[in-house]
Design a protein that fits this description.
Bound molecules: flavin-adenine dinucleotide
Distance between the termini: 38 Å
Largest sheet: 4 strands, mixed
Length: about 375
């Protein structure tokens, strides 16, 4: 076993830190959080750095980086700006889907544009009827005269407002043999058309991510916008689940790490009763607990990412990492906020934002209840859902 970080990971961490110092200082992040939007120019900067192509093959202009690199990058983004990390994960996952399931023509058309930041793709799976029982979705697409027509509604579609197109999971064919997973397809639906209406949602956390509801009313997509095999869209998604869970875990590792840094500094600087508050055991102990839990979730996330990078089964580790990291971030942002006293509630404190952003973790991209049910099943217990 080798616990030394490769030099490339250290370099990547430094590059991200320098980028934020230069382009995204805390006041600007706070501004974007209040405006509930990340301007497109940020993605152009990401493209210049080669960060939009981490998950994309070199033949399309990407760097074909492994899951360990993706997870380090995601952690560093989330330390500073979790909404940006969430959006980046979505961009990476849609690129991954094209990389693995797109036709050669689709790959040649979209992957280089995704890498250059010229094409933003949102992903619409969740519907108002629920994100957990996803196979019950009701959005439909029908093919006639060389064109798909999409009708239905999606909820919580991140990026929908600025996306060029939305990759929509919808029913194109009837349920087959009682299996609801069959008959679903992925259709890349252009956003700027009269059949697509996007309404922004005012969220409490991950506010700058641009999450919206989307209405499809006779939306048109060319016949060749089908991504992957018709009726097998659900199965195409399964191939990226582990990576999505690992990158999500990395977001909560980043949030926990940032919360600890802030609380630790505050404990050193703030004085009460003539001493820094960090001199009191009641302040030191929770910070020691946060540091310990941070080390645990980082190790678990790194292990899952390492297994995936080796092409090995990591379904349990990816699920555990997502579960542990998201629950830990909730607990630890709370503990750290207590150290800051009243200042923890002040909007100018990044901890206030991290506390809100951490709230997404327990239910997205998959709820922790479902993760536990999945792990229970993997341990040989009866399927509970
Ligand atoms: C900021 C944000 C960004 C998002 N971005 C996207 C996106 O880009 N694309 C997209 O498609 N979706 C997106 N989502 C949706 C997200 O993936 C869903 O919120 C998530 O899947 C949970 O679905 P839900 O909110 O409908 O909760 P529900 O499915 O209604 O679940 C509610 C509760 O019931 C529990 N529950 C349900 N069924 C069971 C069961 N069988 N056993 C035990 N417990 C159960 C759940 O665990 C949860 O606690 C986003 C959400 C947010 C908030």
């Amino acid at each position: 076993m080798n616990f030394d970080a490769p030099q490339e990971h250290d370099l990547l961490r430094h590059s991200v830190a320098r980028f934020f110092e230069r382009e995204l200082p805390e006041e600007r992040i706070r501004e974007y959080d209040r405006a509930r939007a990340i301007p497109h120019e940020i993605w152009s900067h990401f493209a210049e750095q080669g960060w939009l192509g981490l998950a994309v093959g070199e033949e399309f202009g990407g760097s074909n980086a492994d899951a360990m690199t993706g997870s380090v990058f995601c952690e560093e983004l989330a330390r500073r700006f979790p909404s940006l990390a969430m959006d980046w994960v979505l961009l990476s996952m849609t690129a991954r889907l094209f990389q693995e399931h797109g036709t050669p023509a689709q790959q040649a058309e979209y992957l280089p544009r995704l890498v250059r930041g010229d094409f933003i793709m949102a992903f619409g799976m969740t519907e108002p009827s629920g994100g957990t029982d996803i196979l019950g979705l009701t959005t439909r697409a029908e093919l006639a005269d060389g064109q798909w027509t999409v009708n239905g509604q999606k909820l919580f579609t991140t990026f929908a407002g600025q996306a060029n197109a939305i990759l929509v999971l919808c029913r194109t064919d009837p349920v087959e043999g009682g299996k609801r997973a069959r008959g679903l397809s992925l259709i890349l639906t252009p956003r700027q058309q009269s059949g697509v209406e996007v309404r922004g949602l005012d969220l409490m956390g991950m506010r700058a991510g641009g999450t919206s509801e989307v209405f499809f009313d006779g939306a048109a997509a060319p016949e060749d916008s089908l991504v992957g095999e018709r009726g097998r869209g659900w199965y195409a998604l399964l191939s990226s689940l582990d990576e999505e869970r690992i990158l999500s875990a990395a977001i909560y590792v980043g949030i926990t790490a940032a919360a600890l840094d802030i609380a630790l500094q505050y404990a050193k600087d703030r004085e009460a009763f003539g001493r820094p508050i960090g001199a009191f055991q009641a302040v030191q102990h929770p910070l020691a607990d946060v540091a310990t839990e941070l080390a645990q979730i980082r190790l678990l996330t790194e292990k899952a990412a390492w297994l995936l990078s080796q092409g090995r089964d990591c379904a349990n580790e990816a699920a555990m990492a997502k579960l542990a990291a998201s629950e830990t971030a909730i607990r630890c942002t709370d503990r750290c906020m207590r150290v800051l006293g009243g200042y923890g509630l002040v909007e100018a404190s990044p901890l206030e934002r991290l506390f809100r952003d951490a709230r997404l973790g327990p239910f997205s991209p998959i709820s922790n209840e479902m993760v536990r049910s999945f792990l229970g099943e993997r341990m040989g217990l009866p399927r509970s859902y």
